[in-house]
Design goal:
The chain has about 375 residues and is of the alpha/beta class. A 7-stranded mixed beta sheet has the order 4-10-9-8-7-5-6, sandwiched between helices. It is globular and about 55 Å long. About 45% of the residues are buried.
Length: about 375
């Protein structure tokens, strides 16, 4: 049997990682400024994370959600404290798309409405409802087309107001910072106005913090720059440093009902042990503060270079060029040994682990300049 060929692959076999560095099977070292799509939050092979995962799997990797799992309760308490959402509830599942599926479903249960407002250039996943609220038509199969979705321009509050005035919108879903869309940062005042509009119309505000959350922006959640509180927050990627896990942070305005939501693997013992370790490491090593500090340095240095536009917050940075970036990114990888990401044809994405040091950031700038 062969693998279903859905990914164009670089001819590189990564076999080891430590901090913000990875090595291939030939012993070549690379600087990792992508973190596997923003997944590696506390660094590759962090010893505390490795210890937590190893000890837990040796004791109990999985049992069903039909019994008490005290690790889930510990994780919820720690996440509430770390994020500033102590009064919210946590529902654990497996992936970012699944988190958004459940958020959209819960919103519709809440107000019994069908339509969703999303934003142009958005990305929320590749499954049924999540892909329909994603503004990439080629990802949407005919079977996904049934959900009623309206896409409006990011930061256009009048367009949102016009849609919500119709009275049939269940939820508005928005990324804390658009990732696949090219690191587009919502305007803080727009976010505050959006929050007010959703409250006025009893529309559920869903904040997709799957890529922009868990400290990446220099705050725990990117929406916290605007000083708002959404009704549901979806998290994944950085939550467990590479172990498949995601969650919903759910406002007290929702009443749980047995059977409405559920999962087989979500919140398993192994994932919870890893996720608890991640939060401990973030706190102990002040990684959010580090993301803000090193990110500020990178943004300032990159804005000095001949780049059309540099966008982002913390360690979530987009570099938009006038021309396609394929050649620059190829040089970075194969000549300078630096992993980066891409958004469209003209934008490079930087999503390094939150432990990126100032020395590593300076080294990246040096290697990056050599490719321009």
């Amino acid at each position: 049997m062969n693998l279903f060929d859905v990914y164009p692959l670089f001819d590189i076999n990564i076999v080891k990682g430590k901090g913000c560095h990875v090595w291939d099977d030939k012993g070549q070292e690379y600087l990792d400024l992508y973190g596997g799509h923003a997944v590696i939050s506390v660094g590759h092979a962090h010893p505390k994370y490795v210890k937590a995962i190893s000890e837990q799997v040796a004791q109990l990797g999985f049992y069903s959600n039909s019994v008490i799992n005290t690790l889930q309760r510990e994780l919820a308490a720690k996440l509430g404290k770390a994020s500033g959402y102590d009064d919210y509830s946590l529902f654990l599942i497996n992936s970012g798309a699944e988190a958004n599926e459940n958020a959209l479903k819960l919103a519709s249960f809440y107000n019994n409405r069908r339509r969703v407002v999303s934003f142009k250039k958005s990305f929320h996943g590749r499954t049924s409802a999540a892909v329909r609220v994603t503004d990439i038509p080629k990802y949407v199969a005919p079977v996904n087309e049934g959900l009623d979705v309206t896409f409006v321009e990011l930061n256009d509050i009048n367009a949102v107001r016009a849609e919500l005035a119709k009275g049939d919108v269940s939820s508005v879903i928005i990324e804390g910072i658009q990732g696949i869309g090219g690191i587009q940062v919502p305007n803080d005042q727009f976010m505050r106005d959006l929050r007010a509009l959703c409250t006025e119309t009893n529309t559920v505000l869903i904040l997709d913090e799957i890529q922009s959350g868990y400290g990446r922006s220099g705050k725990f959640f990117a929406h916290q720059y605007a000083g708002i509180k959404p009704d549901i927050i979806t998290v994944a990627k950085g939550i467990c440093n590479g172990f498949p896990m995601s969650g919903l942070l759910i406002s007290p305005m929702f009443t749980p009902v047995y059977g409405q939501l559920g999962t087989t693997f979500g919140g398993n013992h192994l994932g919870c042990a890893g996720a608890i370790a991640v939060l401990d490491i973030i706190e102990e090593e002040k990684m959010i503060e580090n993301a803000a500090k090193v990110g500020e340095f990178l943004l300032a240095e990159l804005k000095k270079l001949p780049i059309k536009e540099v966008r982002g917050r913390g360690l979530m940075i987009g570099l938009e060029f006038e021309q396609p970036i394929k050649e620059i990114r190829t040089k970075l990888l194969f000549e300078q040994k630096v992993f980066t990401g891409v958004a469209g044809t003209n934008t490079i994405r930087l999503l390094p682990p939150l432990c990126l040091t100032m020395d590593d950031a300076k080294e990246f700038i040096k290697r990056f300049k050599a490719c321009l």
